[in-house]
Known about the structure:
- By secondary structure, the chain is of the alpha/beta class.
- The chain has one domain (14-134): Rossmann fold (3-Layer(aba) Sandwich).
- Helices cover 43% and strands 19% of the residues.
- The protein has 6 helices and 5 strands; from the N terminus they run αβαβαβαβαβα.
- It has helices spanning 6-11, 25-37, 48-52, 74-83, 99-107, 120-134, and strands at residues 17-21, 42-45, 60-66, 90-94, 112-115.
- The chain has a 5-stranded parallel β-sheet, with helices on both faces.
- The radius of gyration is 14 Å and the shape is globular.
- The N and C termini lie far apart (27 Å).
- Residues 6-14 have low confidence and may be disordered.
Amino acid sequence: MRRINLERVCQLSNSEIISIVDDDASARVATDRLVRSLGWRARTFASGEEFLQSPQLEDTRCLVSDVQMPRLNDLELQRRLIAQGHRIPIIFMTAFPDDAARTRAMGAGAVCFLTKPFDAPTLSECIEAALRQHR
Length: 135
């Protein structure tokens, strides 16, 4: 079992957030609980549009986003963030792994591409890599 890195938790200011975007409510809640259990602050959103319009956008230090969502898919969300000047490291997750989607996402700068379900150590390593990239 991986222990929470208290030094890492203390390094995060109260305004640093891990944002989670997933249109599946049960997956969104589960990912939120996992992120919080690892010691990070999290906010959840049911869509990419909701995230882009949220006040948490400015404080997000890492985005964990589902790949297949209605209206605004993974790469479109990533493109809009970049167009708006936001360089938020992104971890993509999917229940339907696809090599082409993985290649596109990683080629566009994603930090990780996870297949659901994933474990706490894997997500923790990806978030830590994303936060290092953001700093």
